[in-house]
UniProtKB/TrEMBL annotation:
It comes from Candidatus Magasanikbacteria bacterium CG11_big_fil_rev_8_21_14_0_20_39_34. Residues 13-188 form the Glucose-6-phosphate dehydrogenase NAD-binding domain. This is Glucose-6-phosphate 1-dehydrogenase. NADP(+) binds at residues 15-22, 49, 150. Pathway: Carbohydrate degradation; pentose phosphate pathway; D-ribulose 5-phosphate from D-glucose 6-phosphate (oxidative stage): step 1/3. It catalyses: D-glucose 6-phosphate + NADP(+) = 6-phospho-D-glucono-1,5-lactone + NADPH + H(+). PANTHER family: GLUCOSE-6-PHOSPHATE 1-DEHYDROGENASE (PTHR23429:SF0), GLUCOSE-6-PHOSPHATE 1-DEHYDROGENASE G6PD (PTHR23429). One of its GO terms (molecular function) is glucose-6-phosphate dehydrogenase activity.
Length: 471
């Protein structure tokens, strides 16, 4: 039985005309509706600046669902969902618009219900929306939940300023800070498998591990995100958020009692302890050759589209265990995975292949366990690999935005970030950026469709390892 939400709600999507709403949010809402997750009484309202009628907006929602939903759309489900969809035109920086919006909501329903405000807007308008939501509410006890997606600032200082600003208007428990990677069932499986299997729990610890590699490669370039990416780069876009979260889930101490507070605490403990030693050249940056020829990019752009980083965890049980991260655009394949290489016994031959645990997220979510076996008759070692899917392929599986939206509607906070994690991650990235600046890190140009700059290989070789390429 797929559980159904019991409480009525209003979901307001600020920026309902944007790509995030069209590509991710509306299709996710359709999937939730198809699974019968919604209560009988609910309202989905698009709030945007452009003038349009209810029918025009519903047609936009219908088009995005038809185009971006990864399943056959059932007309009856779509029709029922659209009957709950409404539109309001207003200005984000005008209190009057928000007061008029409150009147609009009363015209939909006299009943008090939870109000979820989804920020599908650029960060530049976070402040006015937060301010006007605060000023237009009835009282501080009103059930308003604010869903904000990354980026949360562009460095430690701006993220801290955002935290202080939102804290002036709402309690931290009212904010759902969303990193869509944490909604992926394969990423959630890192924690779930470690908590459920003593084998993995006992093996994935610093005393047993030689090195960890986190790889996230993409075939496509920056595409329509040029305006954003040119000011951010791949270190801030991928490493600060998605990949440091994977880092934390892989290496954190498993709490006895799983709650949002205990999970955030343990993740933050790891992120706070990350060290990227300044005495070594621990960062390799690259840029694909066609990047500067794209519209909106300066011919002298130094924005990195590839980064490889060597890091450590400043904890006794992770002493001298290197952790490597690499990520890039316009590469030879799209592939995201973790390789956990286990230590060898002192008596083992150095040339002998190590044992590994590999967790893949894309293209096929699965876990691989690679073992080594000696065939005595021929005096040769044989690699044994066992693999199985960790994809969610049963009734009730949801895309990442669907999973996280459902959690917000249900008041669950397990798979959302805390400001403490975000600030700790920015500290790591700011120190990394400072290291890059002080050492005048070179930007290596690489061919489109290649494996990235060859200089990336010097990072694992500093510790006697090689990148593990999983094909």
């Amino acid at each position: 039985m797929i559980p159904k939400l019991k409480k009525s709600f209003i979901l307001t999507i600020f920026g309902a005309s944007g790509d995030l709403a069209k590509i991710k949010i509306f299709p996710a809402l359709y999937t939730l509706a198809r699974q019968g997750r919604f209560p009988q009484n609910y309202f989905i309202v698009g709030f945007a600046r452009s003038e349009k009628t209810q029918d025009e907006f519903r047609k936009e929602v219908e088009k995005s669902i038809q185009e971006y939903t990864n399943e056959n759309v059932k007309p009856s489900v779509l029709k029922e969902l659209l009957s709950h969809v409404h539109y309001f035109s207003g200005q984000y920086n005008e209190l009057k618009s928000f007061q008029e919006y409150r009147t609009f909501l009363k015209s939909l329903s006299k009943k008090e219900m939870s109000h979820i405000a989804y920020f599908s807007v650029p960060p530049v308008v976070f402040h006015p929306i937060i301010t006007n939501l605060s000023k237009s509410r009835k009282n501080k006890n009103e059930d308003i939940r604010l869903v904000i997606e990354k980026p949360f600032g562009h460095d430690y200082k701006s993220a801290e300023a955002l935290f202080h600003y939102v804290s002036e208007h709402f309690g931290e428990e009212q904010f759902y800070l969303l990193d869509h990677y944490l909604g992926k069932s394969s990423v959630q499986s890192i924690l779930n498998m470690r908590r459920s299997n003593r084998i993995l729990s006992n093996i994935i610890r610093g005393s047993e591990i030689a090195n960890i590699q986190i790889t996230a490669l993409e075939e496509v370039g920056v595409q329509h995100r040029i305006g954003y990416f040119e000011h951010v780069g791949i270190v801030r876009d991928m490493i600060q958020s998605h990949l440091l979260q994977i880092f934390a889930l892989t290496t954190m101490t498993i709490p006895n009692k799983l709650s949002s507070e205990s999970l955030k605490r343990e993740k933050n403990n790891v992120i706070e302890a990350i060290d990227c030693p300044a005495e070594d050249d621990n960062v390799v940056l690259g840029q694909y050759k066609s990047y500067r020829s794209q519209e909106g990019v300066k011919k002298t752009s130094t924005t990195e589209t590839f980064a490889a980083v060597r890091m450590f965890i400043d904890k006794e049980n992770w002493y001298k265990v290197p952790i490597y991260i690499r990520t890039g655009k316009k590469l030879h394949e799209k592939h995201t995975y973790i390789s956990i290489e286990l230590k060898k016994f002192p008596f083992q031959d150095e040339k002998e292949q190590p044992n590994r645990i590999i967790i893949e997220f894309h293209p096929e979510p699965r876990i691989n366990i690679e073992l080594v076996n000696l065939q005595e008759g021929v005096s040769r070692y044989q690699s044994i690999t066992t693999a199985d899917s960790i994809a969610c392929n049963i009734d009730g599986c949801l895309p990442e935005h669907g999973s996280l939206l459902l959690d917000v509607l249900d008041g669950k906070r397990l798979h959302f970030l805390s400001f403490s994690e975000i600030l700790s991650a920015w500290r790591v990235v700011d120190e990394m950026k400072m290291l890059m600046k002080e050492r005048c890190s070179k930007l290596y140009r690489y061919e489109d469709g290649s494996e990235g700059p060859k200089e990336q290989h010097r990072l694992p070789r500093m510790d006697g390892f090689e990148w593990y390429d999983l094909h």
